[in-house]
Amino acid sequence: MAYDGIAISAVRAELEEALTGGHIDKVFQPEYDEIILSVRNAGKSYKLLMSANASHPRVHFTEISRDNPMTPPLFCMVLRKHIIGRITDITQEGLERIVTFHIESLNEMGDHSIKKLIIEIMGKHSNIILVDENGKIIDCAKHITHDKSSVREVLPGKEYVLPPSQDKASAFEMTRESFLEKAENCANQKAQQFIYYNYTGIAPISASEVCATGGVDPSEYVSNISRDKREKLFEAFSDFIKRVKKKEFSPRIVYDKNGKIIDFSPMEMKQFAEFENEEFENMSVLLERFYQKKDSEYRISQKTHDLRKLIMQNIERCSKKKDMQISTMKEIKDRDKLKLCGELITANIYAIKKGMNTVMLQNFYSEDAKEIAIKLDPNLTPAENAQKYFKKYNKEKRTYSALLVQMKENDEELEYLQTVLTSLKSCANEQDIKQIREELANEGFIKKLSRGKKGANSQKKAKPMHFVSSDGFDIYVGKNNTQNDELTLRFARNNDIWLHTKIIPGSHVIIVTGGEEVPDTTLNEAANLAAYYSQAQNSTQVPIDYTEKKNVKKPSGAKPGMVIYKTNRTVYINPSETEIKKLKKIE
After folding, report:
1. Which residue from 109, 112, 190, 421 has the fewest beta carbons nearer than 10 Å?
2. In three state form, how does the secondary structure of 498-550 look?
3. How far apart are CA 310 and CA 220, in angstroms?
4. pLDDT (tens digit per residue) in 480-530
5. Is residue 24 part of a domain?
6. Could you tell me which of 2, 66, 4 has the C-alpha nearest to residue 35?
7. Domain presence at residue 514
8. Distance of CA 531 to the CA centre of its chain
9. Containing domain of residue 197, as a range?
10. Are both 46 and 134 inside the same structural domain?
11. Which helix (H) or strand (E) holds 569?
12. How many domains does the chain have?
């Protein structure tokens, strides 16, 4: 479900219980729209994530470690100045998607004052705002000027005002009379729409649950719902809100029969009774699981946008070049006929007169010695016409030889670029992206990065993925061409097993055998990894070649990640993320 007012209410209850009275001692800002607070309370330490990300805005406890910039952003420095202090309260106005942290800290005069750190969870309009005791904005993660919004400016020095109302009512203040009156006035809306259009903090999935509990079809128009059923719909909605007020939360993720996530919910939902429900101890653990991959993919996508664009431009360039090369090949496919014409003219030179446009000559190279028509330039002598044909033939012959080399180089470059594009999908952090940038710089696609100061390159070196098979064998998966070369050419031993998708860009996969025979289970698990971390991730029956590492060689001058191999076998795999999740992953 959307991270709506119901979900926020469940999270706020957790935060209130754990953090009220706690002391904020550290503030970090790993992303421009993301804040992490380190809070100590009752002998325990907590990490609180506040994200105003346009795609995945949220607030909850986190256990994931994030890389922080070498120099803290300005907003982070402002927060460190103003909110190192005690959390006195955590509030939510009704079911609005706004959570306010009331923080007692010392002001510039050394007096105690209450600041408010407000997170507004509203899609692309999400923000984190610091407000002083007088209601003035001290600073915010996103500065919203009049150019960006004519409705509400969010800038330092401005008075903080709540986001504009959408004329929605509070479900906490709902009465039977007000509900039935609204239903009468909104008769042209469908039942589900009626609930989430008219009440704050209610997502479509919550509205569907109310309909399911009330025995009303969510797609049925309110005008077709009888008074009796409207009463039942109110009772279902009222009971739903009572559960929220009483904090009767039971966080869960719902999966379909294939193990894919359908949705999440802070409470048990009748509409999902037939599906698999995975329960969690609290909303923070659920949200961490639910958003971890989505958020990581979004961040990586943002940070690799320029690289993807560069690679796609070069792929397009290579594709156009290939089309031109194929076109030229078609144009010179009859080059041997030019040589034949020159030879036939030379053989019959005394039978040809200057000024002729065409001559019929017997082709003594063919079995039937059939005559062929040869065009002539009437302004040239027979010998000059023959030389003209030989000259054109030699030119096209040279073109053909050069094209063979150029086409091979272009195909190799195209294949290489496809592997880099596939590698970008496997990036998990900043180090992986940096490694691909360095690889592209070494290959001349982008300018080489300056080394900078010594401390600037002190980040950990990106490493291949490391899994352990169900039989206990170590399996390594390269995330880019640099890692592929490292794994195959330097890490793997001769009797280790090497796997790769057949004629499809993808990761090099190594099974460390330790001299032992590899069971089929491990082989299939490694093949699944090779298929999943390839361009054929969403395909079926993906061919995976495997052989001992000693049969894999790198040709001289080959691009990163490019190898040749022999005496291989092939298995066919349907890539499965579910099966990969069952493997133990070593971080």
Report:
1. 109
2. EEEECCCCECCEEECCCCCCCCHHHHHHHHHHHHHCECCCCCCCEEEEEEEHH
3. 49
4. 999 999 999 999 999 999 999 999 999 999 999 999 999 999 999 999 999
5. yes
6. 66
7. yes
8. 18
9. 171-299
10. yes
11. strand 569-573
12. 4
